[in-house]
Design a protein that fits this description.
The protein has 19 helices and 2 strands. It is an all-alpha fold. Helix content is about 70%, strand content about 0%.
Length: about 400
């Protein structure tokens, strides 16, 4: 009997591995040849980058009376490169602009008018939002009824609902796709430049910076439209964006006094992200350049069934993952309080010990997010068949190409 147990566990592992391999092969075989898998890979990496970035730089400190938000970047500013690696929203807007422009052109070619096209795209964005709002409305009511500190409730709600600003901006740009499809990215970049010049050079009111909330993210979005038009196909375009964006960002940080962190830091006088500054936009240009340069490598990597299946899974539930990742962080933090103040979870993020402990907590956050995904992923696809966001390198022929357009 003792010898049978290891053999049984090995058999189970082999069966699970074989089942996963068969599933990956089936997904790979069902994917149309015309699909540009690099686009899906970039979208998946952008979403996962935001999730990991939030988990690494967001701390909820238990101070005896409640929870307050903090960031390791306050006491360890030399960790700013973490924000460079995981602040990937520009890549998401790049892909979003590319997909929306191509989708709108395809819809027009099929005779679809603007309104049904926009309705279909926005429903995919906002369908999973209702579940988040309902759960947090109930949670806030329970917290207030049980006497929770108002500051703690405010902190939790702000973190839970902060992803919604992104959806609102993305939805507005999506609605403006017919107007933005031909707009040169230089124009919104000029707006950002002048807004920052007025704010930081001539003492204009701080509220003027919120004009950059639209203009700043319009830059990568219109770059995505330029990608659709074929203007960024040459490798030189990606190199120019990468080198130029990197040099401009470095100059702004070193000589113009912009923060090195590309995310908001509690207590900082200036945030590069809320609202976006010129440094955040130039940094986004560098990220977009790198993304464009990686397209061919990603297409080759996505030929592997296992890699493609993982990317396809993330894309099928991208909004669910994005909307619930902060809730997963807070659920873990609140539950952990039952065991006392735990390092890396409730303690002040002021040293390498906290950073090492936070890395240990990442798999726990991922597990809780998986539970949220299992509970709420159906909200993202309710009201229609599960369809993937297909990006074609060319229009499919009638018949077989169109029949193979549905993703598993």
């Amino acid at each position: 009997m003792p010898h049978d147990a290891p053999r049984g566990r090995l058999l189970v592992r082999v069966r699970v591995r074989d089942a996963l391999r068969r599933t990956a092969t089936r997904i790979d075989a069902a994917t149309p040849v015309s699909r540009d898998r690099a686009v899906d890979a970039l979208r998946a990496f952008a979403i996962l980058g935001v999730v990991l970035g939030h988990w690494l730089v967001t701390a909820l400190v238990a101070d005896g009376t409640g929870l307050r938000a903090a960031s390791p970047l306050q006491d360890m500013p030399w960790l700013a490169p973490v924000s460079w690696a995981f602040q990937t929203l520009a890549v998401f807007f790049l892909v979003g602009g590319h997909v929306a422009t191509r989708g709108y052109e395809s819809a027009r070619a099929r005779g679809m008018s603007y309104r049904p096209w926009l309705s279909a795209r926005l429903s995919r964005l906002f369908r999973p939002v209702a579940a988040v709002l309902v759960l947090w409305t109930v949670t806030v009511a329970m917290l207030l009824l049980t006497g929770a500190e108002a500051g703690t409730v405010h902190t939790l709600v702000k973190l839970a609902l902060s992803p919604l600003w992104f959806l609102l901006v993305f939805a507005a740009l999506t609605a403006a796709t017919p107007l933005l499809a031909r707009l040169h990215p230089l124009w919104p970049l000029v707006v950002v430049l002048h807004v920052d010049l007025l704010r930081f050079g001539f003492g204009a009111p701080a509220w003027l910076g919120w004009l950059n909330l639209a203009a700043g993210w319009m830059v990568p979005y219109t770059l995505g439209a330029a990608w659709t038009r074929g203007e960024l196909d040459r490798r030189r375009a990606g190199l120019l964006l990468l080198v130029g964006g990197t040099a401009a960002t470095a100059a702004l940080v070193v000589w113009a006094g912009y923060p090195a962190a590309m995310v908001g830091v509690p207590g900082a006088e200036v945030s590069n992200l809320n609202p976006p500054t010129l440094a955040a936009v130039t940094f986004g240009l560098a990220q977009c350049g790198l993304a464009l340069l990686l397209r061919e490598r990603l297409r080759r990597a996505m030929r592997r069934p296992a890699a493609w299946a993982a990317v396809a899974l993330v894309n099928l539930s991208a909004m669910t993952v994005f909307l619930w990742h902060q809730t997963a962080l807070m659920a873990t933090t609140a539950t952990g309080l039952l065991a006392g103040r735990l390092p890396g979870l409730h303690t002040l993020p002021d040293g390498l010990g906290w950073a090492a402990a936070r890395l240990v907590w990442l798999p726990v956050f991922a597990l809780v997010l998986t539970v949220c995904w299992g509970a709420f992923r159906s909200c993202e696809h309710r009201g229609g068949r599960r369809r993937s966001r297909i990006v074609r390198t060319h229009r499919p022929k009638q018949g077989a190409g169109a029949a193979g357009a549905r993703h598993v």
